[in-house]
Design goal:
Length: about 210
């Protein structure tokens, strides 16, 4: 697992820091898998944002948004979340509201307005077919575009568990195929360089050591 560079925390009011830690604790208590998913997405998002050459302040905002991106799912019962992605119509509508719920939770918290915007738009698609606002292209905040790719990768590939072996490289190819359709092509390029290639070169090194 990649590690989050902790020095990237942006200056926050101490109350805001406490609120963020409280939300993360709440998420961990409610659903450990979801909490770990958010941690992993934050790891990938930071690596991708660094590769894209974003400013330290932007990277720190993206890291916080990635850690909290699914916080709105606190309002969705675990009995529904466990059925992902096989929801009925009512469950899908409840699930899809998590972007607005998450952003609403951040209202009026100092320093978190940009984070709230990233959370609100993390399920938008590059071609305007996403939700909740059907934003298109660069109208989608860069942090949301980055989280969209990292979220897809972690949801579909789960490289740290056995699903990775079952699903193989297909979801990785799907991300490539959807560059310019669902995902920002620049983000996809940076994500592959920062996460996928980095991971496979480390695996090759490890298997080289094992063979030696
Ligand atoms: Fe989400």
């Amino acid at each position: 697992m990649l590690t989050i560079p902790q020095f990237l925390d942006f200056p926050m009011d101490p109350d805001t820091k406490d609120i963020v830690s409280f939300f993360l604790k709440l998420l961990e208590k409610k659903n450990k898998d979801l909490f770990l998913h958010c941690q992993q997405v934050a790891n990938y998002a930071v690596c991708t944002a660094v590769k894209m050459g974003l400013s330290v302040d932007e990277i720190a905002q993206i890291k916080t948004a990635a850690l909290l991106h699914d916080i709105g799912q606190l309002s969705v019962p675990n009995a529904v979340l466990i059925k992902y992605p096989y929801f009925n119509v009512r469950e899908r509508a409840a699930y899809r509201r998590h972007c607005q719920m998450g952003a609403s939770m951040m209202e009026n918290i100092s320093d978190l307005d940009r984070v709230a915007k990233i959370i609100l738009h993390h399920h938008e698609n590059w071609n305007g077919t996403g939700y909740p606002k059907r934003l298109k292209g660069v109208n989608i905040p860069i942090g949301s575009r980055i989280i969209a790719v990292c979220n897809y990768y972690d949801r579909k590939c789960k490289p740290c568990i056995r699903n990775w072996q079952r699903l193989g490289a297909r979801p990785v190819q799907t991300i490539k195929d959807n560059a310019g359709i669902l995902f920002d092509p620049d983000v996809v390029r940076a994500f592959f360089a920062a996460v996928v290639q980095e991971k496979s070169s480390r695996q090759n090194k490890l298997s080289g050591i094992a063979r030696a």
